[in-house]
Design goal:
Length: 395
């Protein structure tokens, strides 16, 4: 059974209520590829999940704030991966305090979704190594929607391998008055198959890939090699604080075509960047306003079998308002000036270490539109590259 067939079979709608994952969208990006971090790096790979609850009915829909959305992870052959309910600080089974749960129930009340409307929330799952085990930790929606820092509950999947997994979320609306506790969750899991009130999202495919043993900066996906090009040293020298001083940072992605097929690789608007500090926190960024429409003369890279191409993503370090910033191009045009547009990462600190991750993505929909004008295959997919580690030092 294909992924799309499973999506059609398992996505559900009950009483006009449905839930869906909108990032990564299973129709735009059927499979997202994540580079497994190095064990010794102690850095996690963020996996962004956007979930929507849609109320197509004519009556309000209520969800208890601490009611559990159950993530389910399976292999492509249907083997279910066991999950544990864990806390932020203790990676063992944890049960919320019942008296605390009652007081929170009184304080927060209910989450209401009005008729013919929807509400979405973002979850940042983490892929990381702990005790020599590759783990995926998926947060509870309550952590983000309601901001309870003392209730950071997660579902943890242990002993993952370099493999393709399918992920979905399950909500049993028959348990709308029950809160996320160990006993309630076990009860829900037992009754999932027999309940007529089950909401499930379509499956999304997460493919976990080890960097190459011969090159930790490269991964290989379907005989295409994606390699991060970076400075030879992890020590990045910053510019002086004088006005207009800049320091170039040479980075990019090299794609080698080891298949027997000619591919065109599209560039415009196909790159994302994140920077994580040494404490595991993502650095805030802003970006230039961009032109969203496809170019009339799109930027392609034609790659014959056995050949390679290079996406130049050279950035720059500079000072602005006494803040050290890093700018990385996103290969779009500025909405107003027509010049190159950039991501800007602020409040960087001298002497601190960081990890930078590049993502290259072209959706199936965009590739089909581009394919109308060319004979060769336009590559599509979503690749989360190995991290680039760097430390900022004075000139």
């Amino acid at each position: 059974m294909t992924s799309s067939e499973q999506n059609n079979r398992n996505a559900s709608n009950t009483d006009g209520i449905r839930i869906e994952i909108t990032r990564p969208h299973p129709l735009l990006f059927p499979t997202s590829v994540y580079s497994i971090p190095q064990k010794e790096s102690k850095v996690y790979v963020p996996i962004r999940l956007y979930v929507n609850v849609i109320n197509d009915s004519l009556t309000p829909f209520y969800i208890a704030p601490f009611q559990s959305f159950l993530p389910e992870l399976v292999t492509l052959d249907g083997q279910r991966i066991k999950q544990n309910l864990v806390s932020e600080k203790i990676v063992t089974n944890a049960q919320p305090n019942k008296s605390l749960e009652y007081s929170q129930r009184q304080e927060v009340g209910w989450w209401q979704i009005k008729p013919e409307s929807s509400f979405g929330f973002r979850l940042i799952a983490k892929l990381f190594w702990q005790n020599n085990s590759l783990q995926l930790k998926v947060p509870s929606p309550a952590n983000y929607v309601f901001g309870y820092t003392n209730l950071n509950y997660f579902w943890c999947f242990d002993d993952l391998q370099a493999n393709t997994y399918q992920l979905r979320f399950i909500l049993n609306t028959e348990f709308s008055t029950r809160y996320a506790s160990k006993s309630n969750i076990i009860t829900e899991q037992i009754l999932l198959e027999d309940s007529s009130k089950i909401l499930t999202t379509p499956w999304v495919n997460l493919r976990l890939v080890h960097p190459l043993s011969t090159d930790s900066d490269a991964i290989e996906v379907d005989d295409l090699r994606f390699k991060v090009e970076k400075p030879s040293s992890v020590l990045w020298t910053t510019p002086t604080m004088q006005s207009g001083a800049k320091k170039e940072v040479k980075i990019g992605i090299r794609v080698t075509n080891n298949t027997s097929t000619v591919f065109r690789f599209y560039q415009t608007g196909s790159f994302d960047v994140i920077v994580i500090d040494n404490y595991g926190k993502e650095i805030n960024f802003v970006r230039d306003p961009i032109r969203l429409q496809l170019s009339h003369d799109p930027k392609y890279y034609l790659v014959q079998p056995g050949e390679h191409t290079f996406f130049d993503l050279n950035g720059m370090l500079f000072w602005a308002d006494e803040q050290l910033q890093l700018a990385i191009p996103n290969k779009c045009r500025h909405c107003f000036t027509g010049t190159d547009a950039f991501y800007y990462f602020h409040h960087l600190k001298l002497g601190n270490s960081y990890h930078l991750q590049l993502t290259y993505h072209v959706s199936e929909l965009r590739a089909k539109r581009l394919q109308e004008n060319v004979d060769e295959n336009v590559w599509n997919g979503c690749i989360f590259m190995p991290f680039i580690e760097f430390c900022l030092i004075e000139p």
